[in-house]
Amino acid sequence: MIEINNIHKSYHMGSNSLHVLKGINFNVKEGELVSIMGSSGSGKSTLLNILGMLDEADSGEYRLDGFPISNLNEKIAAKYRNEFLGFIFQSFNLINYKTALDNVALPLYYQGVKRKERIDKARHYLEKVGLGPWANHLPSELSGGQKQRVAIARALASDPKVLLADEPTGALDTTTSYEVMELIQGINDEGKTILVVTHEHDIANMTKRIVNLKDGVIIDDSLVKQVRAS
Ligand code: ADP
Ligand code: MG
Fold first, then answer.
1. Burial 95-129 (b: 16+ CB within 10 A, else e)
2. 192 lines ligand 1 (CB under 6 A)
3. Across residues 188-195, what is the average pLDDT?
4. Is 162 exposed, middle or buried (0-12, 13-18, 19+ CB in 10 A)?
5. Residue 52: which pLDDT band, with cuts at 50, 70 and 90?
6. How far is the CA of 212 from the centre of ligand 1 (A)?
7. Farthest-apart Cα atoms in the chain, separation
8. Strands across the sheet containing 33-37
9. Per-chain residues with Cβ under 5 A from ion ligand 2
10. Using CA positions, which residue lies closest to atom 6 of ligand 1?
11. What is the helix, strand, coil percentage profile of the chain, to 5?
12. Residue 73: pLDDT above 90?
């Protein structure tokens, strides 16, 4: 599903440059649940943003579901991003003045899905994450865990091939974190390919494979026995 080969990325600030990814190689097969671990500043988000086509590598190869991802024009890139990828962020990134239902439905609007179908899908995915009764509530009326569930429903609504989650439990207490991981495990059980960036060992242990990043290189990449969240 994901194949990357010798990815490099540097950031340039004036005359300084910071070499963040120094030759990253890894593949993710369909149906995997992988965590990317590493201390703060190790390049986890940089890598995830490249995989998510939110940023481009300086060199190296990236194939997503067999499609080469490089030098795409913005229109094609946006099309692939919408079709292939769903994003979940630490800070939820919900729109505050829209209801849970409208937040989930919004990306479908940008994909040209008709209103009735948008609402039906949004409702379906809100129910799937256990928030059916909260459909008409604003984010400010929801707990952190509920907000992240809305964000997960939004990411799922377009049935992406891969879910990319950057510290999805980073703003949540331990109990709520495990509930969110239980949901992520359930989605993976149904076959969805999922990458989770985290710096917490207990969260990484709930995935099936841990990729350890340090100083811009992968220092370990191992299958683990998955700890179930419940
Ligand atoms: P992580 O997610 O593992 O904490 P990041 O990928 O966010 O790490 O950042 C890796 C390094 O790159 C850090 O030193 C960070 O300060 C730097 N960095 C990240 N994004 C930018 C940027 N847009 N411009 C300059 N430096 C950046
Ligand atoms: Mg980060």
1. eeeebbbbbbbbbbeeeebeeeebbebbbebbebb
2. no
3. 97
4. buried
5. very high
6. 16
7. 54
8. 85-89, 162-166, 193-197, 33-37, 209-214, 217-223
9. 44-45
10. 43
11. 35, 30, 35
12. no
